[in-house]
Amino acid sequence: MAEVDPSHSPAEKLTLKDFREAVDARLADRSPEELRALLRFLASRVRPSERLAFLQSLHADPSAHAALLPSALLEDISELARALPDKAREWEDIWPENDTLGPYAELLEPLTVLFQRAQEASERGQHALAREAYRALFSLLEYTDAQGRGPRPEHLSHVDFPEARARYLRSVYFTTPPEQRAPVLLEQLRSLRQLLPRAPRPLVQEWLDISSEPLPDSELFLRDWSSLLRHQEGPDADAWLREAIRLSQGTRGLRELAFSEPSRHPRAFVELLSALEREGPPLAVLTTAREALAVLPASLPLRATVASFLASAAERLGQPGTVRSARWQAFVSQPTLSRLLDLRDPLPSESERVPLLLQAARHLEAVLQQPRAPSGSMAALPEAGDSLEVPAHVDRRLLAHAWLLAHDWEAAHALAARESALGWTFGDNPQGLVVPAFLVLLSGQSLATLPRNVDALWRQALESGTQAGAWYSGGARHDEALRERLARAYAEALPALSLTSAERERLREWCLELARKRASTIVSRQHRRSYAKAAQLLAASAEVLWLHGEQARGNLLLAGFREGFRRHRAFQAELDAAVASAPKR
Q1: Cα–Cα–Cα angle for 571, 574, 576, rounded to 5 degrees
Q2: pTM of the model
């Protein structure tokens, strides 16, 4: 299941351990002449400004540590720390207040070099020196002058802070007595989380991957680490506990953790199912997902992710009934546009899709009648860059999608008719979707042959419609894929939606009246940024009239706005542009 894989970050790097092993493997069978040729090739790619440093590196003695004497490195860090107050006074005398870094900018290059020297100490196994150096460097980045200013991690673009953090924690591990490692590292982890709040959560796996040297007493540490974390609260402690269990006990331990306290460690189910899915047999995933859904609280949004694992495993096992049931559970637990389309897309025909989509629409309607979840600054933020535990934000646009895709245009009309003629772009006003959908339907044209303004209006409706019910975007690629799915769904649903002549007339009159009301309100209130939207809606309405031989009525609609708002030159220009792009009548 591609949706969730908590064991890997989206921007994962090659670890130093893996990199070194790969380099050694590629050099192992090279002859001396081949190595010389490779070195010449690498030299040809060195930038001119770095050629001298490259030549010096060829004379370096790997066993020489003169530049890494503890007193030299630590004294250089102390000297830079003593310069910070002077820089603060210099700012007061010279630098403007609106400069975000001021004289501290002069310290960025030496700071970067000091981080590189601390890294060298770590790579050479000088753990005590690396610990003191990194601790002092991190303290420098916490320095704050009287105005709350100072050098910060985000200013050091050439320092890999997740790697520096991993090296520091590894050095703490090596220099701490075994019986004290767990509490000391927990304290250091929490301190670093405050210093580097934007960095990914630090994990023990990083300390393992940063070097090919194994951690001594790792089994004892993981046991003590797990025991300590079981008594801690919060998402960080829970994530560290899951990792410790996975590293020490594998899927067996994750299963025990998940099922022992489902409400306290629900994410353990996700990690367990991810591990089982990577191991291969879909039956184990299917069985475990079913067991998880039986014990997880019914109100937990994370049930949707578990149900998605169930659907994926059932699909691999050729169990279509289980796939449909699992996707329904996923939709009910976290109703989003993507999950709504998951219900619809696998079914082969509109006749089979409609009953399920009507059921989904009624479920959304019931959810909307419940007390609204907090929004804005009061809303729950996604944990660890995902929304597994965030309740879906059901809104009226999502319900409008469900009614339209279920061919219930009357329900969609009733939903939209209650709303204001403004506020189509932001918020959850369904008119921005329903009116363009009705104009497409009333045009009688295929989506490929729509008049220009109707087509543009429909494309905008699809663009904003992908955000229906969404608080957190899945990224540009996700949004584009969702737009394409939504467009395909409507390309199949709209042609299958039939109207009688009387129904067409009623919908057309409602759309025309709403277009007049919206355009009049926008222009009369001088919402200049929306003049183009008003003009486009009027031109699209006229195009629908023209398509059905009502040229005079379409022309009269536009003439009324030209006359009524003749002094609004900016609006008149937008209307001219919209009409000029329409077919001549």
Answers
A1: 110
A2: 0.78
